[in-house]
Amino acid sequence: MRRCLMLGLLLALLGCSRDAPETQIRRAFETCVRAVEAGDAAGAVDRLSAGFTGPDGMDRAGARLYLTALLRREKVGVTVVAQQVAVRDNQAMQNVQLLLTGRTGSELLPAEGSRRSLVIRWQRRDGDWKIAEVQEGL
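Now predict its structure.
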């Protein structure tokens, strides 16, 4: 009986220890969102791969520079409206609908807002998901 309980506990722990790839990607994306909202450009680009490409050919260093300048002058809010994640082996595509708001200084309400659609290509390397590419969606 005791051996059965230990085996059941071990199987439960092993089953819970590995999240599905879709869940891992959603959590990684949430980490990026929280970093942007906290004004942490370095944290926001942490999930970008070394070979990252973004809109207009932006690379990883360019993304960090852009975010550093933007987050220094604006408080950015990110609301995920909808998202879909499709995983195939070590590649994944994430379609995300976002509502972005921005305010400067001591403003209480956002001065501007826009809705954005992004297509994000993820790659898994050594068990870790990194963003390989971000493009504006339709």
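Residues 4-17 have pLDDT under 50 and may be disordered.
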